[in-house]
């Protein structure tokens, strides 16, 4: 009884905190189509200026992959009014920090400054948009930087090409079939004119959202936004081809060899719907139920109790157009990949045929309440969420309401979605194995 009361108390505390954290914001459009979002938070004397562009790896050509990620680096090279090599010096000398990241669906740039440097931050982001210098020396420099990143994070990292191995087998026509970092030979073959054309097509105000979050005066922010961004010309609207993958109706196998590993990895993967769907949120809960933490079903059974796996995991790889649901494991001792798959299937079958317990369901609710609170616990997190919900989900107020979707998911829905997407005939089984040594003649 005491444990039940404690769990109830935790749930009420988390629920109350989540409700109290309503994010307020103002949004409007400039004449050139740039969407602006303002969120005031006076709890600390800092301000975040971020711009998210609706361009990612899926906007590339099959023989020119890696462009969006390349631009994540290239657009720090300099502008008409910020000399090459001066961007980071300008930020750090004014007490700030900045970074950027790229996915298959978008590219995100942001600066964190003391609140008295908002005008500088806005000017710098407007410079990146209006006056980027894209020349051969910058392209050649960043080409080497990206190659080194690929070597460190993928090519020389154990299991570093797992997502690449999965994607190229799960997608046949959609651009999700290649990785965000792309292929280096594509970047090597690209001309300067191709990079300039990519910038002109996608880095335009009507393909972006600007978020200002933190301590600032709205009147000042609006004045500087108009001054620095208002004169930038609207670009030709981006039109995207729609790609539809044929449903997977029969299980298939694939193999990938990795020279950096000694222990094989077993992977099963199911294609799932867009992250914007309710089903995608249910799959988030299912992955948490199966493998989030040492008390999760798969971890407790296969790692702790039966000692059949060194590691086990399940996650919903959600994206704007499609998602992938991956389950992976490292077999231990004499356990085969086939045995591991069979044991995992047994746990999935339980999800498909039985309702999870009320205790496990409440545990899931508490976890997602906690994740919601943490995602909006910092001004940086709020800025990122505001941009993402506006640009990719088409509903910026999800920053306040998405938790209600998770709260409303029922045990019956979890069972239903497991049956809908996690059937054995709708998946790939990937053997991610050590590379075979080549015999010398």
Q: Can you give the mean pLDDT?
A: 93
So what's the overall shape?
globular
Compressed to H and E, one letter per element, the order equals HEEEHHEEHHHHHEHEEHHEEHHHHHE
Strand order of the largest sheet: 1-2-6-3-5-4
List how many beta strands DSSP finds.
Answer: 11
CATH fold title of the largest domain:
Cytochrome Bc1 Complex, Chain A, domain 1
Q: Major β-sheet, in short?
A: 6 strands, mixed
CATH C-level class of the largest domain: Alpha Beta
Rg measurement, Å: 24 Å
The helix tally amounts to: 16
Low-confidence stretches: 1-20
CATH architecture of the largest domain: 2-Layer Sandwich
CATH homology group of the largest domain: Metalloenzyme, LuxS/M16 peptidase-like
- Total domain modules: 2
Determine the structural class based on helices, strands and strand pairing: alpha+beta
DSSP helix fraction = 40-55%
Distance between the termini: 72 Å
Task: Bin the strand percentage.
Answer: 15-25%
List keywords for this structure.
441 residues; alpha+beta; Cytochrome Bc1 Complex, Chain A, domain 1; six-stranded mixed beta sheet; five-stranded mixed beta sheet; 19% strand; globular; disordered N terminus
